[in-house]
Amino acid sequence: MNYTGEKCVVCNNVFDDESDVVVCPECGAPHHRECYKKENRCGLYENHAGKIKWERSVNKTVIIEAPKTENHYTESETNAENDFHDERFNITEDEYLFSEKYLGYNPNEDIGGATLKEAAAFVKSNTMYYIPIFKKMKDMGIKMSFNILSLLFPPFFFANRRMWGWALLSSAISVILSMPAALMMIIDDNLQNGYQMFTENVMNFILSNKTELAFVSNICNFVDLGIRLLFCFLGNRIYYHFVIKSIKSMKSRGISDKDTISSAGGVKPLSMIAVIAINFVFIMAALFIMSFMLEFTAMFLR
Q: Measured between alpha carbons, how far is 260 from 253 in angstroms, rounded to an integer?
């Protein structure tokens, strides 16, 4: 695409035949390469929220291309590769240039043992969020990024993304750390409503050590917050390793087609219902174990 006569949206200077032009993959706005690098984002970034596309003033044909960075292609490079086609994933040159799934990145780029298109197939949903993060983790060694779901509901995040080991671990930690506070609530509710869940020995033991129990409860709350923050900032890193490990495992077994990779990944919202059931089992088990331990401790100290 010839942008001669158009203006750079950053410096507002007119492009000539020798200008080195890169184009925003989101809105199609042209930039001098140096202007794009200097801003490190599109000069019309504020238009992206409204999905407003840049329009030519010289020729009204609109095209969205990828900006050239280390792993991006410009139009001149793709024109030199008119035969670009990946049979396994059926990615044509036009799909490469215009597909939102790859955000202008090279779909054949390795990101740690799997190609970008394989990772996108496995992630399946919300690739516009995860693919740039995975690429930064591979290229820049970034380990931490923010994930609000893994802060608020770590077991739900891990189960929804099929990371069952982490889902069970985070559920167990959450239940264990919530036990002191839950125990205090149960005792207070018992006293207010006149029923007794624990034996008299346990009740007396807890009531005589309520100050210590409240202190332990506060400590557990701080520990729980710290673990949630760890999951918040490392959740995407954990998911990145899970994606790469899963794809490498499938490829080692001769599985490489897009549909199979995609079916093994993605999200599974029904898993969150399973997490609720698992949490209930953990809570019942924890209460039973705690009741037994308290009964034993009360008898021992009596």
A: 12
Range of the domain at 2: 1-82
302/296 Cα distance (integer angstroms):
10
- Here the CATH number for the domain that contains residue 30 is 3.30.40
- The number of folded domains in the chain is 2
Q: Which of 84, 79, 124, 83 is nearest to 101 (CA)?
A: 124
Is pLDDT larger for residue 262 or for residue 56?
Answer: 262
**Does a structural domain hold residue 153?**
yes
pLDDT, residue 195, reads: 66
Please name the residue ranges forming H helices in the chain.
Answer: 33-39, 75-79, 93-98, 116-123, 127-140, 148-152, 154-160, 164-193, 200-208, 210-252, 258-264, 271-301
- Beta carbons within 8 Å of 57's beta carbon, 6+ residues apart: 5, 6, 7
Q: What angle do CA 172, 177, 178 make, to 5 degrees?
A: 100
CA-closest candidate to residue 140, choices 222, 237, 61 = 237
Asked whether the beta carbons of 85 and 92 are under 8 A apart, the reply is yes
Residues 182 and 270 in one domain: yes
Question: Is 9 in contact with 44 (CB distance < 8 Å)?
Answer: yes
Residues 157, 283, single domain; the answer is: yes
Given pLDDT bands bounded at 50, 70 and 90, which one contains residue 246? very high
Looking at residue 194, its pLDDT comes to 65
Q: Which residues pair with 72 in a beta bridge?
A: 105
C-alpha torsion 85→72→113→117, nearest 10: -50
Contact 112, 247 (CB under 8 A): no
Angle between helices 271-301 and 200-208 (to 10 degrees): 90
